[in-house]
Amino acid sequence: MGTLVSPLILAPVVLPPLGALGYAVFGWRPATRWLATGSMALVLCTAVTLAAVVARTGPHTVAGGVLRVDALSAYMLVAIGMIALLATAATPAYLTAEITAGRATARTAARHCVLVALFVAAMAAALLAADLGLLWVAIEATTIATAFLVGQRRTRAAVEAAWKYVVICSTGIALALLGSFLLNYAATHAGRPGLNLETLNAIAPHLDTGVTRIAVVLLILGFGTKVGLAPLHAWLPDAHSQAPAPVSALMSGVLLSVAFYAILRVKHLADAAIGPGFARAMLLVMSLTTLAVAATLLLAQRDYKRMLAYSSMEHMGLLAFGAATGTRLAVAALLLHVLGHGLVKAVLFVGSGRILQLTGTSQVHQVRGLAARDPALAGCVGLGVLALLGFPPFSVFASELGLFRAAFTAGLGWPAAVVLLLVLVITAALLAHSAHMLLGNPTPRPAEPVPHTAPTSNLTSPTTRSYAEATPAVPPAERGPLSTIAVLAAGLIACAVLGITTGALQQLLYQAADTITSTP
């Protein structure tokens, strides 16, 4: 079994860069267009196989103790594989439309695919890291890869969003690094220096309480920055709104959840070292603050990609609320929410990218009558919004129901009531904005795109025009690419199936919950 497990654990980290090598050597062309999709399909198959092995035989450690997989990391790998497959399957149609409109080139497309592959590999490495230091390095690597993707269009807004993303996330991750140093200091004085997660959990009762408290605060704040939790959340709406649609799908769908995975590991350690109350209170405050910020900003939101970004903040706030509850049911519901939210956000961000290409604007008030213009796209986006808001039969309904049930059972009645109220406000705002875009008469479009002229700023190249400068000449009767509609439908179907039954995932869900909680 050990001979089989080692390549299975290494595969999610190794396979994406191998796909990236194909783009680096041969570039973006018809023969390589689906290479990234194929490599992500292999990652998903590997993750599912690894999850089955772990569910039967328990955790495994390879590469001299550097990499370790348990039920939690295996489950998260499955989530990465599913959402990365959806995002990369939508990428060829998206990039083809961008190249046709003059906002990208074949070289841009090849670089995009290389960076996405490295991004996915870094996320997989973060989940498989047996050491908190390696986990930190892998999450920082995701920042480097995605910064170039956020600024890919090289417009002033995109470059500004990329720099904002780098500065704020680097500040947060620096806090996490300082917290790691303090945790290593506490472990050294407990007689077991190092940041190996298994070792830290074993010696948790012997860690210095004061030093551990400071370390936990820094670690949760630091990784919480990458999650998009308040107060260091300001990068998220800018980055999500400026990144290419498939990248936004990955960032919202799994990057935020991978960073939250780090918080779950820290909380588990904190509960064993200083008791469950400390991390619970901190996460509860961050959850309520994040939900309040998201609700306030969504009410008057005018940009639909930023609207989806603030919705991501809402759902990360719900994850923090579930982690604060901390029971087995809450963590299982939280993990189901990770997968359901990731699938729906992949659908909605890919759909938003197609809407942007179709209409040439990201402003809610300038988009009208999508149901008449492209019924298939509008239908998928409309169902995606309903799924995101927690309507049955989609899995977000089941996971949110589990989160609230666990909270009331754990005695968190008043925080749960506040969270429910904020969720209702967010639901009303999202429904109003979405109805405006989907219903009514189609918005008139110019008959011809605006002619392109040479850029006057070094932030914009001739091959990276903004949507304000030129809109692709897409006739109102034209329908979206079949591959894009297939991706949207597949994501919605997967989310609906999860809402009806978790099937084989149920055992893995509860095993994953058991790895980071001992509370029934």
UniProtKB/TrEMBL annotation:
Record bears the keyword Transmembrane helix: yes
Transmembrane segments: 6-27, 34-54, 74-97, 109-128, 134-151, 163-187, 214-235, 247-266, 278-298, 318-339, 376-398, 410-432, 485-505
UniProt keyword annotations, A-Z: Cell membrane, Membrane, Oxidoreductase, Transmembrane, Transmembrane helix
Comp. bias intervals (Polar residues): 454-466
UniProt cross-references to Pfam families, sorted A to Z: Proton_antipo_M
Positions of the UniProt region annotated as Disordered: 443-476
Subcellular locations according to the entry: Cell membrane; Membrane
Superkingdom of the source species: Bacteria
Membrane topology: Multi-pass membrane protein
InterPro entries in the record: ComplexI-like_HydComp, NADH_UbQ_OxRdtase, ND/Mrp_TM
Residues of the NADH:quinone oxidoreductase/Mrp antiporter transmembrane domain: 129-419
Coiled-coil stretches noted in the UniProt entry, renumbered to this chain: none
Name this polypeptide is given: Proton-conducting transporter membrane subunit
Organism (species): Pseudonocardia eucalypti
